[in-house]
Amino acid sequence: MTERTEQQNQPGPQRTETGSASPTPPNTTPADATPPDPTPPDPTPPDIGPDAAKPVQAPSDAPKPDAATPADAKPADAKPDDAKPADAKPDAAKADDGKAADGGAAEPEPKPPADRWASFAPPAPVPPDRWGRIRARAGRVFAHEWTLAALGSVLLAAIMTWPTLRHPTRTIPQDINDPTLQAWQVAWTGNALTSTPGELWHGNVSFPERYTLAFSDSLLGYAPFGMIGTGPAAAILRYNILFVLAFALAFFGAYALVRQLGANRTGAAVAAAAFAYTPWRLAQAGHLHILSSGGIVLALAMLARGHGWSLTGGFDRDKVRPGWALAGWLVAAWQISLGFGLGISFGYFLIGVVVVGALAWLIRRPRLPRRLLGADLIGGVAFTATTLGMMYPYLQVIRLHPQARRTVAWVEMFSPPPRGFLTASQESWLWGEAHTAARLSLSWAPEMTLLPGFFLIGLAGAGLIFSVWTLRQRLLLAAGVAVSVWLALGTTTPGKGKFGYLLLYKLPGFDAIRTPGRLVLWTILLLAVLAAGAVAAFSRRGDALLEDRPRDQPNWWIRALTALPLLAVLAEGIHQTPHPEVPAAPAALATEADPVLILPTDESIDSNVMLWSTAGFPRTVNGASSMTPPRQAQIREATRSFPDQASIDLLRDTGVRTVIVLRDRVVGTPYAPALDAPVDGLDVERDDRGYAVVFTIL
Q1: In whole angstroms, how far apart are CA 608 and each of 26, 56, 75, 164, 178?
Q2: Is residue 688 classed as helix, strand or coil in its secondary structure?
Q3: Residue 16 has pLDDT above 80, yes or no
């Protein structure tokens, strides 16, 4: 026998018929297996010791070699020429049904022991059906942070703006002047895009002027809402819904931005509340185009996410999302379509971001994905095209009405003093009454009460010392706050704005803005980011404290402390804005031939007439905006003596066919004599309808 034979006889795992080792489980012995030899094996290895050189004797019962075997035949245990493994069995043995190659019975495969705890295991999960999968997916969507943030933003906006939605078809926030004008803008854009797109910028008001939609910020981005419903009631309802959604979008956009920058949920919620419900915003309750700033922060959040950038992590190529970058550019273009009141500063801010990003790339030369570059190219082209398209009608207004250009005198009139940053508007529930004397000292309080919020200022100050942002980032944010305040002061800074806002005034587009105080929007945003850093750091300390405290001790007060900054900021946003009822439209406006003039005519009544005209959009001479065309001013002056031949001739030459004098609105105005003036010998017919007197020009 050879050395291999000795090794095969050593103790060890038994080989199965397939040639693999199969250890026998403990305490189990097959019925037909040979009991193990109780004698312990010799610990001396077979190739070590005195007997190592002696040949191994074959057992007495070993089969004798056949005498007929040729001399050159290989022994039975020799390895064949094709180098089969030593433990491989002949094919004949494998084919033998359960018999070993040497004729003995094969050792059966041992069975694993039964699991004694199997009966206690839960039943196997049943795969959900189609509706179950839909419900599970819907549950994941509605439980997602962004879904909860969006729904919470809308719910909070409805509460914070109450009672805007109490009588949404009859009342309107703040007053019945600018809000009714803007309700007409949304209605007109929706109507024009669905009926006469070519007349989009040429509204039915301020007849016979052209580009009348561009006399104010157009709110063109809200046109899809204007496609739903008709008439004044629908226009009021539409405006009130947009009013609430403007606050909701401001909150959601700021939340998304600060979360992307790296703050936790608590810090982001405080920043969002500070941005959306700052006391300054309450003074702008009658200006939907200024309240609609949510697209700014939402676009910045999407652009930052798309480029994989945050304050806490910097640029991360693995987090780049080209789709988000493209969406950010499109939201920015939509924000521009609402108007240039905020769009001018936003556009230049984006240009600054692009320049800084390009310089950073030139210094570090990070590898940018091609898809991201493609998204930026497409999005940048869309943003630029939207901006240029929006600029065209406004440039035409400047060409036709040069007096519409804002001069430095306009800027001086609306520039706030430094104390305006600490003065709240009368709509503030918390500070309004206390700041009455301070408001009386301002020349134009609605545009000079710029209080960002005392709690916000305090939290931002804390954020300079204790924050999740780095010291460098905090200093840059503080510098941004100082610069934005300096610019918002307009001409009240040393040098009368020559080293501040008037520098911006030399840039294209800024000469269309007469209210520098609205730049406080950027002050509030930067303060909110600073405050979020402090709140996030405080919240993390609270979480660490909770982990170290025993579970049997009450911890609710620690959670309550983290909510105090949010409640304090929201308290400053509680308003006492009036919600007057909008006057009903005169029936004659919808039945008489147009073009029509309604008397009295001035900025306040003409805003109402614009709203009334949403029932069919008849052409009206009446129209209100921040700019009064010379012809409209001439008609207002001439019709104070209506009906006389001079005013009738002027109206006829203008194309006016009907004049409606409202009894309840004309009393006490220069137009009151028209109610009882004789028309004998004049080219006009008079019809007293009770609520109004209707004149038809022949």
Answers
A1: 96, 120, 116, 19, 9
A2: strand
A3: no
Tokens of 464: 């300079």
Q: How many whole angstroms separate alpha carbon 365 and alpha carbon 381? A: 24
Give the residue from 223, 199, 222 showing the smallest Cα distance to 210.
199
Q: How far apart are CA 587 and CA 581, in angstroms?
A: 18
Mean pLDDT of 526-534: 98
Is the separation of the CB atoms in 602 and 665 below 8 Å? no
Q: State the alpha helices, DSSP H only, in 415-555.
A: 436-440, 454-463, 471-488, 501-504, 520-548
Instruction: Express each pLDDT in 374-417 by its tens digit.
Output: 999 999 999 999 999 999 999 999 999 998 888 899 999 999 99
C-beta of residue 584 within 8 angstroms of C-beta of residue 656: no
Q: Among 587, 659, 590, 592, which residue's Cα sits nearest to residue 621?
A: 659
First to last CA, the chain: 136
Long-range interactions of 20-23: CB distance < 8 A, separation 24+: 22/109, 22/110
H-type alpha helices, 493-629: 501-504, 520-548, 556-572, 588-591, 603-612
3-class SS at 309?
A: strand
Rg for the chain (alpha carbons), in Å? 42
Whether residue 492 contacts residue 485, with contact meaning beta carbons closer than 8 Å, is answered with: no
Confidence of residue 114 (pLDDT cuts 50, 70, 90): low
Q: How far apart are CA 432 and CA 285, in angstroms?
A: 14
